[in-house]
Amino acid sequence: MSLDAFAGTTVGQPVAKVDSLEKVRGQAQYIADLYRPGMLHGAILASPYPHARILGYDLTEALAAPGVVAIVTGHDVGDGRMGAFIKDEHAIARGKVMYVGEPVAAVAARTEAEARAACRLIQVQYEELPAVLSPEEGLAEGAPILHEHLADYIKVFDAGSTGNLCSRTRLEEGNVDSAWDQCDVIVEGDYTTQAQAHVSMEPCGALAEVDANGRVTLWSANQSVFRVQANVCESLSLPMSQLRSLTPRVGAGFGNKMEPHIQPICVALAMKAQRPVKLILSREEDFEMVRARHPFKVWMKTGAKADGTLVARECRVLLDCGAFADDSPGVMGYALLMCGGPYRIPHLRASGQLVYTNKLRFGAFRGFGNPQVLFAGEQQIDQIAEKLGLDAFEIRRRNMLREGDRWFVGPQIASNGLARCIDAVEQAAKTPRADGSPRNFGLAVTAHISGLLGTGAIVRMLEDGTISLNTGATDIGQGSDTVLAQICAEELKVPLDRVAVASPDTDGSPYNWGTTASRVTYTTGRAVKAAARVVVDKAMEHAAEMLDCPIEELELREGGRIGRKGANTDLTFAQISGRAHWAVGGPIVGSNTLVFDEPTHDPKRAIALGLPFPRIGVFSFAAMGVDVDVDQVSGQVTVHEAWSAADVGRAINPKLVEVQLHGGFVQGLGYALVEEMVWDGARLANPSLMDYKVPTMRDVPDAIHTFIIEDPEPSGPFGAKGAGEIGLNPVVGAVANAVAKATGFRHHHLPLTGERVLNGMTGRG
Known about the structure:
The protein folds into three domains: 179 residues, Alpha-Beta Complex (Aldehyde Oxidoreductase, domain 3); 317 residues, Aldehyde oxidase/xanthine dehydrogenase, molybdopterin binding domain (Aldehyde Oxidoreductase, domain 4, 2-Layer Sandwich); 142 residues, Aldehyde Oxidoreductase, domain 4 (2-Layer Sandwich). The protein contains 18 helices and 31 strands.
C-alpha cells in the first residue's frame, strides 16, 4: 500500500497536543483539583499482615474522632466480586486479608488529616494465617489455600484454576520434541525478572458523589471509564445504570489504572456518608496497595541449524499473581504468545503457570509480559549467532517474519516493516564514537499488538459546521485525544481546531474497553474514521439535494466544503448542517462501533489451552540498538547512545510517536538497570522514591535516535497501528546483549545493577 494514498493536511503532521496549553499554564484539572460542595476526604487503613482472618472491628474511638462522618469495612460491601478474567476480589477486605497493604477499612472525614488520624484509632482483631510468598510455595504440597472458594468464582476463559493455581496456558505449534534432533546448536537457560512499580506522576485517586435518587457520579484517575463502571458495580452489587463514571485529566497510567484501585472504596464511603468523598493515595500507599509489573521466572531453550536458521524453541514461565487475578491471566497468555519473537520458528511450545501469593496484585504494565520473555529470547538469539560466527543483524534478518506469514498459533501479518527497522539501526549504529573508541553494541527486535476488544465513536456536525468527537477513550498523557482528532479532521477535511474532543463519560460516550495494549490509535481510530465517513455521506446527501445534482458528481473539499466536480460552486458544512438542523433530515450524526474479531488461534495448525485473548492481532515491529559503557571498578552500566526504530504503520502524529519511543526507552532503561521492588518477607521494603530508584536525566543518554518506519496496515486508520509499548519492549534485550559484549559475561537476572554486573565480571556470577 502506497503512502501517497495517505497524503493529507492533518494526518502525518506533528501538530501540538490539544491539551498542551492547559497543562503548560497549570489549568488542567486532575482529581486533586476537583471539589464538590460539602465534600469529605477519605483515608484507608491497610492490613499489617499478609494473610489473616478478620475476626472483628472496634470502630468506637474512630467514630468519635473529630471530623469523622463515616467508616466502611468489609461488612458494608456485600459479597460482590470483581476481576477482568476471574471474579475473585472484593471492594475491600472481607473475611480475611490477603497482602500487607490491602485496604481493611476506610474513613470519610472533614479533612484528610482527620481521616488519617481516625484510621489509626480503628481496632481490627486478626487471626494470623500461614502466608504464601512465592509461586513455588503456592504450588507446594500442603500449601495453605488462599482462595478457598476458587472453584465458585466466575471465570471468563478456561483458566484451569485449582488450589493456588490461578490459571495455566499452553500453546504449541509443530513438533518440538522431535525438532531438537534437527538442530546443530542449542542454547537454554533460566532467567528471572523483577517486579517494577509503575510510578505514574499522579497517584491513584477518586471522587464520588451520590445524588438524591441514589445515583453515583464518580470521577477517577483511570484508563477506562467503562472498566471502572463495571468493577465498581460488580464489587458493590450496583446496577451499572446507577453509576456514572467520568475522567478528568490523568497523570499517566502505564497499566496500574486500567483495573480498579480505590474507586469502589470511595463510592462505598460516599454512599454511607451521603456526601461527596475524595480519596487520593499517598505515594507510599500507591506502591503498596495497587499493582506492579509481574516478576517472571523463565526457562527457555532455542535450537538452530548450522546456517543460523531457527528450528525450535520451548518456553516455560512461572508468574507470581499476587493476591488477586486482576489482568494477570492476560499478561501470562500474551507473554507466551510473544515468546517466539518476530521470527519464523516452525516448532514452538510455550506454557505457563500463574500462582496466587500473599503479595499485592501484579497486573498490566506497559509491554505486559513481552519484555520479560524477550529478555531471555533475544539473548539466546545472540548466543546462537556467537556460536555460529554470525552477525547479530544477519541472524535476525535470516529468520524474521515477513508480510503474509503467520504469528505463533495463528494470526496473519498484513504489514511488517521490521527489515527496514533493522536496516535503520544498523546503518546508524555503524558510525563510530566521537572519541574513536569501540562500541559495546547490543541489538534486540520485537513486535507488539494493537488490535484488541471493543470500541466506538460518535461524530456530530454542530450547527455551525464544526465537529464534536466522542470516543470514550481516555487520554492518559500519551496524546490520544490529539491523534483521534487528527483522524477525524482528515476524514472530514476540516482544520484540526474545528474538532472538539469530548471527555470520557459513561453516560454519553460510546463504549471503549480501555487505553491499554497500544490499541487506541488503531482500534478506536478505525471507529473514528468510519463514524466520520458516515457524517460525510450524510452531508453529501444534503448537498446533492441543495445543488440539485447526483451524489456521484460531488466531492469533499478542504476546509469542510462539498462542491460539484469541475465547478467552483460549493457549500460549507455550516450551510449543510443548518439545513439538517432546521429544515430537512435532522442533525448530522455519525457513529460506529466495532470489536476486533480476527482469531488469535488457528486450530488447524496449533494447540491452544487456556488462551485468555481469543481475538488479538495487528502487529507493530521494532528494532533497538544500544551502546554501553561498563565501569570496571563498580560494574555500573551506562548507556552511551541508543537507536530505536519502530514500524507504526502510519504515524498519524510523528512528534507524538517520537515522544512514545523516547518515553518507552527511558522506562525500559529503568527496568533493565535499576528499578526493583524488594520485599522483606511479606512487606515491601522500598515503597518510596527515596528507596526505589528510577532513571533521571543524569541516567539517560543524550543521544536517543528514533526512526519512524511506515509500513501501512491495510485495516488501520490511514494505515496506522500502535506505538505505545513498542519502544519499551526491546530495551532489556538490547542492554543485556550490550553488557555481554562489554564484559564477556551473560546475565540471566534483572535488573543489571552495578553489583550484579561486577560479580559477573569477577567470576562470581
